[in-house]
Backbone:
């Protein structure tokens, strides 16, 4: 099998996204890289996992506020290969951002994050279920 040199037929559009950088966030929410996520539930917590291969954990920011989990950061490849020498170029680099609406009952103040083997794992504890308050009924004797 012989390799065919990669040709970027879409080169005139490579910087197209830059025209939208100044738009409000509601319009430009999905710009940049959007990492895939897995969300699952354990007994007392909600787990969010995302694969961030090659990303330095120092370049990742995580915030939880108002029922919204935000994961953002940047990735860059330092390489000496001239742009013209690529046969294929699919690995993206740049800014990434992902926002996830959290279900009710999550304790936003008790979140933990770990990074191992290129996988970012965020554990969000569930709030303890509020127990219903028992109200006793006082039985009064009727006056005749």
Residues:
């Amino acid at each position: 099998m012989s390799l065919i040199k990669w040709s970027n037929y879409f080169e005139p559009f490579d910087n197209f996204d830059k025209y939208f950088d100044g738009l409000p966030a509601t319009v430009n929410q999905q710009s940049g890289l959007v990492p895939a996520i897995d969300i699952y539930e354990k007994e007392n917590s909600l787990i969010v996992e995302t694969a961030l291969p090659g990303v330095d954990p120092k370049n990742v920011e995580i915030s939880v506020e108002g029922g919204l989990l935000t994961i953002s950061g940047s990735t860059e490849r330092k390489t000496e290969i001239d742009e013209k020498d690529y046969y294929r170029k699919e690995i993206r680099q740049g800014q990434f951002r992902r926002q996830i609406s959290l279900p009710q009952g999550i304790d936003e103040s008790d979140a933990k994050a770990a990074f191992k083997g290129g996988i970012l794992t965020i554990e969000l504890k569930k709030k303890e279920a509020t127990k219903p308050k028992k109200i006793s009924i006082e039985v009064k004797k009727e006056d005749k």
User: Anything to note?
Assistant: The chain has no helices and seven strands. The first strand starts at residue 37 and ends at 41.
